[in-house]
Specification:
Two copies of one chain form a homodimer.
Chain A: H1 3-23, H2 28-37, H3 44-55, H4 64-85, E1 89-90, E2 93-94, H5 96-100, H6 102-120, H7 125-147, H8 153-175, H9 182-207, H10 215-223, H11 228-249, H12 255-275
Antiparallel strand pairs in A: 1-2
Chain lengths: 282, 282
């Protein structure tokens, strides 16, 4: 199975997990809003949970709670980001706040976040502790996205985006019973998340007028005084190389190795392909 | 020392803890907003941490992180509530969102909440797990406050308000090393929190036009078809009695017993006194 097939398959499972989760929500209003917030995700982050769990020999069903929790946290953070950024569109439809108002989205997110952490606590209290820290990191990242210095660009990107890549990678060490690999998996998630956000910012720099750039994309532009392309190519290769070294250090074999090694290009290709621009990065 | 003196003293200490916490915040903007959000609290909930920790023989300094974290969570939840309720005033000043905009308050709250949970994790991972659950309960409570049935009134009040009374009471079992009292302390916090919110809603019913009532105060009014006074008196006595039984079951003595026994009337008196209405409840 190649990575694309793996992703399609895990996406179906994750969508089912999300649906089941929503059905179990007792309050009708909460269910409706949660459904809207969680609709149509690419489920990349949840797929990482399946990939790393499988690669480390974990049973697939052990990845379910982690994948679900990761997607809940990711969706809630996007819904809040849209309020913060005044974005009216998300995944081609109205942003949740534009449908349900700010207040209700804040409410529901504030419910979804501890609910996800609660699901994570099934992996034990250490997993919970690290997850709370990672979620705190995303909040600091969101602040640095607004107020951070250009020089802190990579750190901002690590905090705001890589935290939710570290999360499923880290949880896979618990779901597969390979706790000794925890630090390596966090590092792997970190490199992957940085790659993902740098490419995302690159796409913004290419497709948007420079005066419309915000957050880390704006920081990337300023940092490189508009010559972002060579910088992105350099960083892309740097973090990809580190990622590959780390993956090769894992005690895994078979087709999981190929799938994991293909991940950076797969994610970057997804972002670049979606935007319709030419790939000049890799 | 009577309860009033105890409260004045602990409030000073908590204010210092808050100030120290704010000083350690690196981002200037975050510090400014956090400062605004955390200003001028009564520090009742933090004081509970001091009281229960002391009563159970814990060293006072062991109560500091719990008191601080409780007040951070409480302040963040108020700042979010004000967005949700469109309240323009808080503690006699503009609500945080009216000063800093919704988006920034969401940001900062989203930073403060996991920061508080992080502080709590110093009491161990079990304390963290319970705290995440309690925080989830406050979110469910906020939702039931909006959409809940009148018949669920007491449950709504327990979730939305008593959760942040359970929190310091529960944490005191960790800070004092009396883990075996965990369940009793949760129950104590629950009864105290229910009393507090019922009296708070009573004050709203007395002071506000019935068409202006919202949330649990409105539920109280509807549930009792406007005859809330006898209901509140009944419930007040019922929960106070349970509270007193529980406190008397604790292995404590000396002046802490008197202080703890005085708490329900002290809290209710505070709310009623503040509002300027006559006490017809106790």
């Amino acid at each position: 199975m190649d990575l694309m097939e793996f992703w399609f398959r895990s996406r179906v499972i994750i969508d089912e997990l999300v649906e089941k989760f929503l059905k179990e929500t007792r309050e009708w209003e909460v269910m409706e809003m949660s459904k809207y917030i969680m609709r149509d995700g690419k489920r990349f982050r949840g797929t990482l949970m399946f990939l790393f769990n499988g690669a480390l020999g974990g049973e697939e069903k052990n990845a379910y709670p982690g994948a679900l929790a990761t997607e809940i946290l990711h969706s809630a953070s996007l819904a809040l980001d849209d309020i913060v950024d005044y974005d009216e569109l998300r995944r081609g439809m109205k942003a949740a706040w534009a449908v349900y108002t700010n207040r209700k989205v804040i409410f529901v997110s504030n419910y979804l976040i501890p609910t996800a952490l609660n699901i994570i606590s099934g992996y034990g209290e250490k997993a919970l502790k690290i997850s709370v820290d990672l979620w705190k990191d995303t909040a600091v990242g969101a602040l640095k996205d607004m107020y951070g210095k250009d020089d802190d660009y990579v750190r901002t990107v690590e905090l705001k985006t890589a935290s939710l890549f570290k999360l499923p990678a880290m949880l896979a060490s618990f779901s597969s019973g390979k706790i000794e690999l925890l630090d390596t998996l966090m590092e792997i998630g970190k490199n992957l998340g940085i790659i993902y956000q740098i490419v995302d910012d690159y796409v913004d720099c290419v497709t948007q007028d420079k005066d419309n750039l915000v957050g880390s994309a704006k920081q990337l532009f300023s940092l490189t005084t508009g010559r972002y392309e060579s910088y992105v190519r350099l960083k892309y290769n740097e973090y990809k190389e580190r990622y590959i070294q780390l993956v090769r250090s894992l005690p895994i074999d078979g087709e999981y190795v190929d799938q994991l090694l293909a991940l950076p290009d797969f994610l970057a290709f997804g972002l670049i392909g979606e935007s319709g621009i030419k790939n000049k990065i890799f």
